[in-house]
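Researcher: Good morning. I'm working through a list of sequences from a screen, and I'd like to move beyond sequence-only analysis. For each chain I'm collecting a predicted structure so we can compare shapes side by side. This is the next one on the list. No need for commentary yet; just the structure.
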Amino acid sequence: MRRLVLSLVFVIAACTGPAPEPAAAPDLNVAAQRYEEAQIDGDATVLNELIADDYVLVGSDGAQQNKAELIEFWTADGFDPAPVTVTDPVEHRWTDGAALGGTVTLSWSQDGAPVSVNIRYVDIWALRDGEWRVVYGQSTRVP
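Model: Good morning. Structure tokens for this chain:
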């Protein structure tokens, strides 16, 4: 009887096979790089894709911006930001989300006049429907 039970266990195990692997999530690093490049390039299409519809940014002055306002900022006529270098990077990840940030010197030309600010920021990312989306941002000017 014990042999019969063991035989059935092995047959069932052989028939069922290993559990399927869950589908791999897209690479967050790729999405974050695309997001940075889209901001610098003023690419509204990519920004619209990567920013969640319910996105909120709390700026260094405490004011809030939504998705449309953020895209408008990065794509404004006459706004020409220079590439940024992130220092003091912050990275906390979990299964379906992440907090990515750091300190940047954001420099740009606005209507021909140079502007530069030092900012500490964090972007909160969420894995939604199999795609990474920025859902929240916070920035603070460095004194």
